[in-house]
Amino acid sequence: MTNFQRLHTLVLPIIFLCLFPLRIASSPTAEAEALVKWKNSLTPPLPPSLNSWSLTNLTNLCFWDAIVCDNTSTTVLEINLSGANITGTITVLDFASLPNLTQLNLNANNFEGSIPPAIANLSKLTLLDLGNNLFEDALPKELGQLRELRYLSLYNNNLNGTIPYQLMNLPKVWYMDLGSNYFITPLHWSQYSCMPSLTRLALHLNPTLTGQFPSFVLECHNLTYLDISQNGWNGTIPESLYSNLGKLEFLNLTNNGFGGKLSPNLSLLSNLKELRIGNNLFTGPVPTEIGLISRLQILELNNISAHGKIPSSLGQLRELWHLDLSINSFNSTVPSELGLCRNLSFLSLAVNHLTGPLPMSLANLTKISELGLSDNSFSGELSATLLSNWTQLISLQVQNNNFTGKIPPEIGLLKRINYLFLYNNTFSGSIPVEIGNLKEMVKLDLSQNQFSGPIPSTLWDLTNVQVINLFFNELSGIIHADIGNFTSLEIFDVNSNNLYGELPATIAQLTALRNFSVFSNNFSGRIPREFGKGNPSLTDVYLSNNSFYGELPIDLCSGGQLTVLAVNNNSFSGPLPKSLRNCSPLVRVRLDNNQLSGNITDAFGVLPNLVLISLSTNQLVGELSPEWGGCANLTSMDMGNNKLSGKIPSALSKLSQLGYLNLHSNEFTGSIPPEIGNLSRLFRLNLSSNHLSGEIPKSYGRLAKLNFLDLSNNNFGGSIPKEIGDCDGLLSLNLSHNSLYGEIPEELGNLFSLQIMLDISSNSLSGALPQNLEKLIALEILNVSHNQLSGTIPRSFSSMLSLQSVDFSYNKLSGSIPTGRVFETATAEAYAGNSGLCGEIEGLTCPKSLSTDKSGGVNKKVLLGVIIPVCVLIGIISVGAILRRRHIIKHADEESKSNEKSDQPISVVWGRDEKFTFSDLVKATNDFNDKYCIGKGGFGSVYRAQLLTGQVVAVKRLNISDSDDIPPMNRLSFLNEIEALTGVRHRNIIKLYGFCSCRGQMFLVYEYIDRGSLAKVLYGEEGQLELRWAKRLKIVQGIAHAISYLHTDCSPQIVHRDVTLNNILLDSDLEPRLADFGTAKLLSSDTSTWTSVAGSYGYMAPELAQTMRVTEKCDVYSFGVVVMEILMGKHPGELLGTLSSNKYLSSTEEAQVLLKDVLDQRLPPPTGQLAEAVVFTMTIALACIRESPESRPIMRAVAQELSATTQPYLSQPFSLITMNKLRGFQK
């Protein structure tokens, strides 16, 4: 060996040994520097745990917080910053400087931005947890290079795009959670394979994952946990799932669109402990084989459209502790075998069609803590044996059923209970004193039953209670002073009982109180002075319909939270509370029908949230302040029947939402502001019985939505503005008792909607009666008396077939009166004071020369004088109609040509199970040819469309276009509402298949019902032949359940808004189906809950004329009218006004109207049990049409009552029952 070779051999190892410690020392430095650089990029403030991350502390890297090094303390293995509340990104982190990192846990922070592809440099990573952050954008495909990864969680971020298929190549991953993001479905799942080690997979809460069941999952044979819930999956569950995934212990498919029948092969998943498949679109019964999955502990089958019987095989699931079968259509009794599931602690059977009494075997469920049986048709009593064994109950909910009898004293054994809901049944007797043992009670609801007697004194011992609802019962007695013990009480509602006495002063001690409702009782006395002052959270106060007197508490709104104050129909006196002036949260104020006095000029300030104010029928004085113009949300203002004076401020014109303005019967003077004509939403304007003067402003002609205008009993002068004829929505016009002069403008004949009255009597009007008034074909009352009108009464008035009353008296009219029922049956007083009038009325005669020729026939000249002009007029109209039709056809052809290439829908919302397209509808109706049109209504035309599949649907083409005429609501909101309506499922409600916007028009597609409307059947021959009493009662029950479903079971609640006979269809079995639900809301003038015209005249609730606010109680009123119409065979008409008003009780003449005389005379009177049912049904109808919305029942209660198996016993013969007696009838 040469010297050089020896030297080389000696030097190289020395150099290597010198360099080796330098390599070890530099690695921690590089890691530390990378971590500090990342830390410095984060958004301050930083958590204290990062204080140790510093360049001055490099030598202690392995002692930094959140850092774990290897055993030699030379390299970083783990970073755990979970829950540190850090904000920033991870793009600055140099992953290449951390080559030995095995765990990176950043869970529960605020990291944002993209996940960088450089993360693939962490080649030794076994755990990556980036869950519960704000990461966004697509996942980098480079994640597929982390071949050592075992645990991957990206849960709850904002990640999107498709999941990289490269991710599925990770051989060692056993846990993968990609839930709660925005991943989308790839074009083909075939590119994806399953990780061989994967046992836990979560893809839930990705609403943009849609389509069929992801096929790659079926290859994951080792899965024990699978969660793909709350996505957009649809179709059926593949049968291979049951054979391939036999190791599954947890399966969650809830909140998707899976359909089809549940497979009996579910039982192959024999290792399942948790099965959650609720909120899907499955059909058919639950397979009995489900009882073979013996290890099941949690079973959720809620809201899957299951029907038939509850499988008795469920009793084999002895380990089951959670069972949810709610919101289905099970229509059996509860199987006794369910009592074998002795470990059950949660059981929900709510919202089904279950019947019968509860089986006594349920007493075996001694561990039950939450029991939900609500919204069924259970009957019988709550057994003392059952309650005695359910002592672990925390929640018992049996509301909305048909339970009867008394509550057993054993209720006092439920000492752990927090929630006790027994409302809307027919429980009776007294509330047991043992209820005072339930010291843990939080919410108690016994409302809408028949409980009687006093509120037990022990109830006041429930010091933890937050909600007490006892309303709509027959309770009597007083409210005890011990109510002050309820330090946690938030809601106290005892309305509509027979309670009496004074309110105890201790109610002012309820510091948590929010809602206090005692209306419609027999309370009296004064309200405690401190009430409100000691209740800082008070939001709703209802004291209406009692006999309270004295002054209102001055500090009612001292807490500044009050939103509703309703004290109407009492005897309150004195001034208005000062605290109301600046009570800005106020939304509704009803002080009407009291004896309040004082000056209101400065009583109210600007209340920005106020929607309704009613001060009518008091003794208030003062002037209207201009500050009212600042109440920007005010829709209803009623100050009528007081002693208010001064001028009406023009500032009221700033109330752009105002729909109802009533200032009648006051002492206002001066002219009325023309700016009122700017109130485009004004629905009713009543300024009658004041001292107003000047001319009626022409600007009032701009009030396009005005339905009621009453300016009577004032000192208005000048002529009637012809512009009033532009108010084409007017139903009633009263200008009587003024000093108006000049001729009646012929433009009044353009008020085609005028229906209730046209009263221009007691003025100084002159000239002839305009023949144009003949066009008011819906008018019922016409009064032009006490004027100076001349000429004849136009014979064409005989075509006004709706007229019920006319008065032409005390004018200078002459000639013959027109023919027609109302003109010939009117008394002579209607024509008195017109010396030149003649006709076939007692007291009026016509000279023969004017009326007949010598042969006794009609004068030929008169005939020619009438016939010739009429014929000419008819000819002109016919020619015009033909020309117009040609123009329309030509225009339609042109439009069709321009649109023939644009049948593609602009907006589409179909129900999940609908398989047809808009093109199918066009073909089925020959492009909506008139020969397929089966009806026209207020919302549009309806077409019958038979699809190629044989399915028949009804297509409604709406009377608005796709864009220009759509109400000013957010389009997305409109489509969301349609989508919600397609989810409505009830046997008595027409199914809405979907919505389509195309070619500038909008279409709704419904289920087709062959018999047509109830109005058509009732008023046709079928009304007598097929609609016998039993069938009519059955129809009433179906309608009640349909409306109840919309009000109670739909979320959000749906108010129908137009319940009429025309919107109730009958199928081949005469089963009722409610139609047009929700359509009125969709086509209303805005997105709020009220509109100027909500419903059909004759069915609209009276409060709409004041508040214009549509609530579910408006549907209740309409339902009452419909029921009366069904029983009477005709619309109740004027009977509604007398029956709904309290004045009816004091009318001795009308009080003797017999029920038998009101019922449909085409049918023989009902007898026996049928008579009892008819009496009770009419009683329910009268309760529904009560004038006060608060006093009407809710539809859930109505439906339950009408479906009761027993009807009340008649205390007197059917033939002697009067309508007045039914108003006070109690079941």
UniProtKB/TrEMBL annotation:
Stretches assigned to the Protein kinase domain: 928-1210
Residues that span the membrane, as ranges: 862-883
Membrane topology: Single-pass type I membrane protein
Chemical reaction(s) catalysed: L-seryl-[protein] + ATP = O-phospho-L-seryl-[protein] + ADP + H(+); L-threonyl-[protein] + ATP = O-phospho-L-threonyl-[protein] + ADP + H(+)
Signal peptide, first to last residue: 1-25
UniProt cross-references to Pfam families, sorted A to Z: LRR_1, LRR_14, LRRNT_2, Pkinase
Binding site for ATP: K956
GO cellular component: membrane
Record localization: Membrane
The keyword Transmembrane helix belongs to this UniProt entry's keyword annotation: yes
GO molecular function annotation: ATP binding; protein serine/threonine kinase activity
Superkingdom, taxonomy of origin: Eukaryota
Protein name: non-specific serine/threonine protein kinase
